[in-house]
């Protein structure tokens, strides 16, 4: 969903608001909290909560105290207190929901570290802020070139200017400790501003930059996920997933955060399953678990030495055999438990999707056109009323050059004797004339 500022231009090309998902219209921003109390008024005698939530570049948020009781609403650009100078941000949440968010993130009120809001940003503040934002991309390219020249094992992922353009924060990722003292000196000479280097993790880098996951949706960390919990390979094992690092890793190169989403449901379902390391002892032999199906609640066991023959059991049957083994009660075999699950099914390969037969070209195709044409002629002749049929033939030249006379033949009337009609000499054979001797 995009806001009105992200529409297309006059020529049809995408215009965009150039905020990269951080605009204040609640349409295309990141990590936005919906203010469902916006249309509700406070009770009489109760003052509004004097803290507001302000968002900066790439979803970075902070909470500021509004001591001067400035009337603020969502989308207002404000000048906030910083360590040195001031910063420019956008108001994203006001009212009682800010109190809930601060309690959720365990941010205390009225502490010495609490920052304040100075004023609403003037046009001069906005011009300085936008000019500094336009310098960030070419500065990032130049900073990467300097880091490569100094052969530092680090990656500069993003640069963020302070609102008054007095300081630039360089976000980088690195596996080991980096000595960037020489790097800061060259950055200060090159960019003529105060430099702050801040190391972030790979997950935080993916959250700042954003992207599309293997599921086809935007990354969870850049849209709604605010806390990063540790993800281990045991989460994939409990869900019966193949331990393929290419499929389990996300854009950040770490294990996907979504592996933890359904882990609790799988853990609850596995409580009724026996441990896969537990062996089943029967009179026929010792059985070892080969496979489990969490959704159907089934387990497959195979005897030692007969690894190709699997026997399907339910969780109740497996637990019953394990209980009998603990009590040292004899169990005949797994077949007597597996026979209860055998259901005779008839396989029907009916053509339900309208596909052609695979053997349609095996038999030669017989043409029934002649038979059909004969049947049509007979049916037409039976339906027509009987009438006089005249047959005329054109003059036909004989071998001697003469012409034969036209002959007409009337159909035989009903009741007329056969002897009264002229014989038809058409089918008679002509006498063979002997050839003259040469």
UniProtKB/TrEMBL annotation:
Residues 357-438 are annotated as: Disordered. Residues 366-378, 386-399, 425-438 have a biased composition (Basic residues). It comes from the Bacteria. PROSITE patterns: PSP1_C (PS51411). Residues 115-200 form the PSP1 C-terminal domain. Residues 400-410 have a biased composition (Low complexity). NCBIfam families: RicT_YaaT_fam. This is Stage 0 sporulation family protein. It comes from Dokdonia genika.
